[in-house]
Request: fold
Amino acid sequence: MLGYYLDLALRSFKRNKVLTTLMVITLALGIGASMTTLTVLRLLSGDPLPQKSGQLFYVQLDPYPKDRPFSRSDKLPWLNTYVDAMNLVHAHRAERQAAIAMTQVKLTPTTAQQHPFFSTGVMATADFFSMFEAPFQYGSGWSTADDNDRAKVVVIADYLNDQLFGGANSVGRSLRINDEDFRIIGVLRHWAPQPRFYSLYLGGPNYGKGEAVFLPLQSARAAGMDPINMMSFAADTQALEYAPTIWLGVWVQLPDAVAVAEYKNFLAAYANQQLALGRFQRTRFGLSGLMAWLDSQQVVPDNVRMQTGLAFSFLLICMVNTVGLLLAKCLRRSGEIGVRRALGASRQAIFAQFMAEAGLIGLVGGALGLLFASFGLWCIRQQPAEYASLAHLDMQMFLSTFAVALAASLIAGILPAWRACAVTPAPQLKSA
Amino acid sequence: MSLHPMIAALRKHKAGVVLIALQIALTLAIVCNAIFIIYARIQNVQRRTGMDESNLFLITQQWVGAPSGDDPASIQKLDAMLREDVNALRAMPDVESVTPINSLPLFNSSWNGAMSLKPGAELRSGNARTTYYFGDESLMKTLGLHLIAGRNFTAADVTNKGFRDPSEASMVIITKTLADKLFPKGDAVGKVVYLDGASTPSTVIGEVERLQVPSVSSWASSFVWNSTIEPVRLNANFSRYAVRTKPGRLDAVMNQVRSTLYGVNPMRVLDDDSVKSFMDIRAEAYRADIGMAALMGVICLILLAVTAAGIVGLTSFWVGQRHRQIGVRRALGARKIDILHYFQLENLMIAGGGAVVGIVLAVGLNRVLMSKFEMDSMPVYYVLVGLAVVVVLGQIAVFVPARRASNVPPVVATRSA
Reply:
């Protein structure tokens, strides 16, 4: 039966070429715009570590004085002081824990032909790699002992290894960072969680290819590296390690709800202890799951959210337009419907016939929409945004394009199909 | 022409009428808001920074193997290296003026704080937040700023300090906006202010007409014009220089500048982004805004086209359907122009109805956007212009099918349908 309906649909398309083309193009434009922006939105708001994100939590404390709060709307400070970060890391109350900051590094290649260049580096404590499941190509991360000894070791990203050592196993070789030599102990495989959840407020990019080097926090500090972002809550003249300055993000891994509850108790006790010591004036704290933290901080740029809203309103208008045109088309065929009804077609059959026609328009519109979406994504890849190069249509989006197109056209088809099956055969036959 | 028969006719096509009206309403709501967003972006992009932006470029460089800058001796060493660079740049042909500087308007790096009238005051007090520019006596000339009161720094006023040294300069030049905020009487010059909650005073020695802060992000939107200039050379293992060239010599100097600096001291990093004309800095700062405005513009145009196409499609269908009725009217004495007007008026009624709903939707959408994004409330005239646009669009779209209707000959009435 479906074959017959599709045949009827094709015949009707041929009769009204302009109207059909108009419907297909309208729908395709709406689909193309929506899928382009949806791909970008999904890319930007996705889960950076799908297998692990449920166990990762971001810790916030409030070392700010009461009369000079961090934010006027009473938000918790984004980052932690060195003292608090180290206290939390050394307390070892979570399964894994790490303090992280970003720094700008100057890398000097050992070969004479290459010029020194700037890049972003991560300064972190030892659990960083195991907690975030960063995969190693060669070697491994550093140990807590290396942290404490301020060992001059470094883990480098795959692309840096390719660039400096041609992709060979460079473990054991040395790398000159900010005029000091560091020994390479590990080379990562390609690893760049999107968005870069751990770099939020630390000054690194939120998206893109990932940092070039990873250094033990204390070693990097001993070599004079400064964090990119720091916020002071009192005039400070001391070294960053003691200063009233927040500059570190603290992440902990907590496997289950019990561990989360225990860690909350620990944080509450810690904040109270710091209050008693006179370091804190408020005992509030925050422990947010990875995805909740990203959501609450609105990592996705406003522009992208606005574009997505715009694209979907556009799709809505395209659908309203398609409803109107389909309606016009099917009312024009009242005579034909009357004949079919008189020859024994049931209302359901007429309804099915017109839905099949709408669905066909949806499929063709979807195919054309895919073309538009590919073009849209190509345009986005030409943009300078840090996420631009990642904007590709994957299999899932490819299939959802057709799903959305089909759903849009079928929804648009309901009203015209319903009106068509409500046509009474007798007057149509009389007038014809 | 009486509206009664027209309304009676429309009642027969409720679904079609509602669809067109709905489409017009949605189009109006979205186009109004999109144009408002586009306009806000364009206004942002067109703001003048207060500088003379032509013939200006910025150098960012870092020394290799430079002293740490943690002790007085190494700070003096860094300062000597910085002055060596500045002198070499000043000696270049076609260079008009050079200043060491920490950032420029629209450049993605800023040093923010707050200014108050009392010592040790709250750091984050809202109304006198400011961004600092650190430079020497040539800063005013290099950036091309307009001094409107007081005086410029002299060479003797300029000091130097390490990057993490929290001490404040004893004198500052501030923008008029900042001066008026702190001293509403307009007598800022000669007065004393305290920077970032410091206990030592700084004297305001001059006022400049206008100087934008570096950040164009929304967090800085409350103090876009609150800039403070300190006569200080900041010493760190990196440095920035703003250079003004003679008119038309920008490219020549920019091409030459790397070899000049490497000539002074080859132990430094100058990468692809290190030498940047202000035009490029401006383009980069606003690229996202311009991209967004262009995208919105294109979508608006497509949207209007789609709506127009919808109107053409449905009206054509109605014309076809009423072929015989039109013939009857013509046979009864209606002129061609009457038929044309009939369809035009009909469209006007539908578009008008849709537009009324659209106005409500547009205002509602604006409220939603205001709650979700940093946006202002949309002025009424946007809605009125949008209304005019959709009504005119409707009239243009209906013209072709309406003319086809007016060309239906009266003889149609005599034929059986």
Notes: The two ends of chain B are 27 Å apart (CA to CA).
